[in-house]
Design goal:
Blueprint: E1 3-7, H1 11-23, E2 29-34, E3 38-40, H2 45-48, E4 59-61, E5 71-74, E6 77-81, E7 86-89, E8 92-95, E9 98-101, E10 106-107, H3 125-137, E11 141-147, H4 157-171, E12 178-184, H5 195-207, E13 210-213, E14 218-222, E15 227-230, E16 235-237, E17 240-244, E18 247-248, H6 251-255, E19 265-266, E20 279-281, E21 286-287, H7 300-318, E22 330-338, E23 341-348, E24 356-363, H8 364-381
Parallel strand pairs: 1-2, 1-9, 2-5, 9-20, 11-12, 11-17, 12-13, 19-21
Antiparallel strand pairs: 3-4, 6-7, 7-8, 10-18, 14-15, 15-16, 22-23, 23-24
Helix pairs in contact: 1-7
This protein binds flavin-adenine dinucleotide.
Length: 382
């Protein structure tokens, strides 16, 4: 009997768990650890922050997955020992034949003084609800969507957020009284996808009257005065701040020696294996450099595909069939643009010297596709 440990029941962890359940025998044990009792479908937070979802629609209890012959351990992981393939969670120590680390990126708003005192961190459920609460009441003033640091997960999300906010304000005939700005600690939107995609996003913002300020690194937030200060000595006031917080590698992962505190876990870009045999890191916790000098974006589509690829690799290796097929760097993404419209892009992110991306004309069908994907995500496992 084999035992596979999966640290993290987010997008990558669950994709790996379910694929493994189909590949291994019933008596092989798959143990999934998470500090949270619920799984959150993060893309839906953009709809939570703009009032088209309630919190209970974006989360499901992990305990429900026990029916699928998965061992769910609802406890915080306090230590990882990759050399022994060991996880310490709660007061128990677990050792496996394989270990998948899928702990995502930790959010660290306090890295910017004052930022954590603002409620509008829409990368959390409570923060997305707080944005909607303020947006719903906002009659006039300035909305700032802030990208505080790079890298951050889902390169499209803050731009989608700005366009969705625009759509809500137009629907409620308040757009004329509200300005929307995006302040970004990056030179262009979705830079890994190339200049054409960046330009298309900037144009979509421009068409909606959303001001874009690239290369803006926030240094301080004054929540009482509602003011942001940037590294170029400029400042801007706001009435509603919706922000992407700084991200960092989870502390337990850094403490295990798998990643530096200011970096991410190094892996083989095809097998996702770390320098330890049968220890894999997938999704946002991994750092994968691309030939163009930027990392593979942190996105659910990659976490999902990597989870499935690693599940296949583990099943193959346990059955002594070699490694088999691996992760190929392909991925796609919907880009919500407000008022029922979305764009779509797909590409080969491992292509060299730069990713090859195909962007499709925005339309209602892409928005419908994103809604259908959300439904499918829940229907397949719950
Ligand atoms: C607003 C928003 C919109 C997004 N939209 C998209 C989109 O449209 N398309 C897309 O591809 N991606 C999107 N993403 C990004 C996507 O959600 C992430 O890239 C993806 O969730 C990464 O998967 P993961 O498994 O690596 O980490 P996660 O899904 O974050 O899972 C990590 C898990 O580890 C658990 N954990 C962490 N530390 C511990 C610990 N010490 N002990 C126990 N458990 C722990 C967490 O509770 C969590 O469940 C979006 C993200 C956000 C925030």
């Amino acid at each position: 009997m084999a035992r596979v440990l999966i640290a993290g029941a987010g997008v990558g962890g669950l994709a790996a768990a379910h694929r493994l359940r189909r590949q291994l025998t019933d008596s092989d044990e798959i143990v999934v650890f998470d500090q949270s009792p619920v799984h959150t479908f993060w893309p839906s937070l953009l709809w939570l922050m703009t009032g088209t979802r309630q919190a209970e629609q974006v989360q499901r209890p992990l305990a429900g997955l026990r029916e699928r012959n998965l061992t769910i351990v609802n406890a915080s992981i306090t230590a990882l020992d990759p050399a022994q393939r060991t996880v310490v969670a709660g007061d128990a120590r677990w050792t496996g034949d394989a270990l998948i680390i899928a702990l995502g990126a930790a959010l660290n708003p306090s890295a910017v003084p004052g930022l954590g005192d603002e409620p509008g961190n829409f990368y959390t459920v409570a923060g997305a609800e707080a944005v909607w609460d303020q947006l719903n009441r906002l009659k006039q003033g300035r909305v700032v969507v802030l990208i505080s640091r790079v890298p951050f997960k889902c390169p499209a999300a803050p731009y989608e957020a700005a366009m969705l906010i625009d759509g809500v304000l137009r629907k409620h005939r308040r757009r004329d009284q509200v300005t929307i700005e995006v302040g970004a600690a990056e030179p262009a939107p979705m830079g890994v996808a190339g200049p054409k995609v960046s330009e298309a996003v900037i144009e979509a913002l421009r068409d909606r009257g959303i001001a874009y300020h690239p290369n803006h690194l926030v240094t301080r937030v004054d929540p009482d005065a509602r003011r942001l200060e940037f590294s170029d000595d400029t400042d801007v006031s706001y009435d509603l701040l919706a922000y992407v917080p700084p991200h960092r590698v989870p502390a337990e992962v850094a403490a295990s020696g798998l990643a530096p505190a200011d970096g991410w876990v190094a892996v083989d870009r095809h097998t996702l294996e770390t320098r330890f045999s049968m220890v894999f890191a997938i999704g946002d916790v991994a750092g994968i450099p691309l030939a163009l000098g930027k990392p593979l974006p942190k996105a659910g589509v990659f976490a999902h595909r990597q989870g499935e690829a690693v599940a296949d690799i583990i099943a193959n290796r346990l059955a002594e069939r070699g490694t088999g097929a691996t992760f190929d760097g392909a991925g796609e993404c919907f880009i919500e643009m407000g008022r029922g419209i979305a764009g779509f892009a797909r590409g080969d992110f491992y292509a060299e010297p730069a990713p090859i991306i195909h962007a499709y004309k925005p339309g209602r069908h892409w928005h419908a596709g994103k809604v259908a994907f959300e439904r499918h995500w829940w229907a397949q496992w719950w």
